[in-house]
Write a structure and sequence with these properties.
It is built from 6 helices and 14 strands. It is an alpha/beta fold. It binds cytidine-5'-monophosphate.
């Protein structure tokens, strides 16, 4: 039973995009809405889990008093909260679309359009999922997401190994209705040892149920 598996478990979830500040009015971001991560958080809270949701800037809200919400903006802020929370978590589900790069410097004044071109130097952000993968202890489970456009299964398998995750939820940009900004998603879940589950296109609330059912049935101590 799902409730037996999740009741009382401490679960970390990341959701939404990160915004990487350029100056006081501009940032680098992406189109993630946070719907997938929020849907997972709602399902798990309703099953009695102790849910900690670390969210980038999104337009959706949770009314669920059982979800502990940590609002962040940048990848570095998300990393700090996640590493603190993960230490005594049972499961972490990393659904956020973390920006891969951030501007090297933050301009305290608005950048003026004086020259014809502008060069921004970007630095690579830390990989939060991979960082948690390096500190993961026996009995903790780590689930990542992957949004791929080509060679999807192999890329997702490579991510699973490289980031020391226990499962990767793959959404392909080639599937109509899947990925960012849609209310629906079409996923494939890849577990270690080449176990692969494919699911049809569904509402993100039902996709959330499939993900948490797959975790509870396959990732056991
Ligand atoms: O490598 P890629 O960005 O495709 O990996 C996606 C997975 O890694 C997602 O679970 C995402 O939340 C996580 N990730 C992260 N920190 C990053 C980049 C991705 O946690 N800097």
């Amino acid at each position: 039973m799902l409730i037996d598996y999740y009741s009382g478990k401490k679960i970390l979830i990341t959701a939404g995009p990160t915004y990487e500040k350029i100056d006081p009015v501009r940032f680098i971001g992406n189109y993630s809405t946070g719907k997938m991560g929020y849907a997972i958080a709602e399902e798990l809270a309703n099953l009695g889990a102790d849910v900690h949701l670390v969210s980038g800037p999104v337009h959706i809200q949770t009314q669920n008093p059982k979800i502990k919400l940590y609002k962040v903006e940048s990848a570095l802020e998300m990393l700090e909260i996640c590493t603190n929370l993960f230490a005594d978590c049972d499961v972490a589900i990393m659904a956020a679309a973390v920006a891969d790069y951030r501007p090297e410097s933050f301009e305290t004044n608005k950048i003026k359009k004086s020259s014809d071109d502008l060069v921004l130097k970007l630095l690579k952000n830390p990989d939060i999922l991979a960082t948690l993968g390096t500190i993961k202890k026996q009995g903790q489970f780590l689930i990542g997401f992957a949004l791929e456009t080509n060679n999807e299964i192999n890329n997702a398998k490579e991510k699973l190994l490289r980031k020391n995750a226990d499962a990767i939820v793959l959404n392909s940009l080639n599937d109509p209705g899947a990925g960012f900004s849609h209310q629906t998603n079409k996923i494939t879940i890849i577990l270690q040892k080449d176990v692969i589950f494919e699911y049809p296109l569904k509402d993100k609330k039902l996709v959330a149920k499939d993900i948490i059912t797959c975790i509870s049935e396959n990732l056991k101590n």
